[in-house]
Design goal:
Length: 318
């Protein structure tokens, strides 16, 4: 029988997600509905559904946006070709790419311009990876595992550099980087690691609590890379873990023989989902629900410059 629920800290929204969601909300206030959003603004179905109810229209491609309308680009970043196509279609664009993702884009672009072949560590097909590779399609090669490194067709004389997707597992990425450095000792590395602070912090928080929980529930959507990495972090530490969209997906059979449940949430999951899970346990008699570790994150990102300008103009015109 479950007697206690421990809430990981930090968890939930990161600064990049806060910025992206607020960008869509403020655009709706400024321009009115509809405001189009290319791809999911962040990878969470609850967030997307809430914004749809306010008038956001999510599309898969900028070609699906009527000419002249406003479109917000998601936090995961876009290839330059997307921006060029949007300009050709006279779309009013607002780029909500997370600044930490944008930093990886800049790194990749600079390395390629300096004549390096860029090795991108990431997951094939993820929107962030697609956008980064679009910065220099002929100069960027994707690897996912250390085994992929062994198969790379480069030699000692090749000029190589690497960058990484921001939402990867810290441990797995370290293994791939070690394989790259072992095989290519002169490979160029970013001055600062690309995995974002929020991804690292949430994985660290899960690792810290594993010795004190029998089961970990991770709130997040199936297409959320950082949420999936939290599940993997727990399972690699020997603790059973499940990814759930919300409290309705909890299977009481998971709780057989479980005394302490850990709860965390991915960087795009709203805190109200954690509150709902706590209520789910309270209705089943669990009284002890408490935070585990208290790490405050104080990172903030300003809204996109193009939106800030127009908000300031609107305020000035009263």
């Amino acid at each position: 029988m479950v007697r206690k629920v421990l809430l990981a800290s930090p968890r939930g929204y990161c600064a990049g997600v806060e910025r992206a969601v607020e960008t869509v909300e403020r655009a709706l206030e400024l321009y009115g509905a509809p405001v189009y959003v290319r791809k999911q603004i962040v990878h969470n179905v609850h967030v997307v559904r809430d914004l749809e109810e306010r008038g956001a229209v999510f599309v898969e491609d900028e070609n699906d946006v009527p000419a002249g309308e406003t479109v917000v680009f998601s936090a995961h970043g876009i290839a330059p070709s997307v921006l060029a196509n949007a300009a050709a279609r006279r779309l009013h664009t607002i780029d909500a790419t997370c600044p930490l993702v944008a930093k990886v884009h800049v790194q990749a672009r600079r390395y390629a311009a300096d004549g390096y072949t860029v090795i991108l560590i990431g997951h094939a097909g993820h929107e962030e990876v697609v956008g980064t590779m679009g910065e220099a399609p002929d100069r960027i090669v994707l690897v996912e595992t250390a085994d992929d490194v062994a198969a790379l067709p480069f030699g000692d004389s090749d000029r190589l550099a690497y960058v990484t997707q921001t939402t990867l597992s810290v441990d797995e990425t370290a293994d791939v980087i070690a394989a790259l450095r072992a095989r290519f000792p002169s490979i160029q590395a970013p001055k600062k690691e690309d995995i974002c602070y929020a991804t690292s912090n949430r994985q660290w928080a899960v690792k810290e609590m594993l010795t004190d929980v029998d089961l970990l529930l991770v709130l997040g959507s199936a297409n959320s890379s950082n949420s999936n990495r939290l599940v993997e972090t727990a399972e690699n530490g020997g603790v059973r873990s499940y990814l759930i969209e919300d409290a309705t997906e909890i299977d009481e059979r998971w709780l057989d023989g479980v005394s302490v449940v850990g709860v965390t949430s991915g960087a795009s999951a709203p805190e109200r989902l954690v509150a709902d899970v706590c209520d789910w346990f309270r209705t089943r008699g669990v009284v002890e629900i408490e935070p585990y570790g208290l790490v405050e994150e104080d990172v903030e990102f300003r809204l996109p410059a193009e939106l800030r300008r127009e908000l300031a103009l609107a305020a000035a015109n009263g």
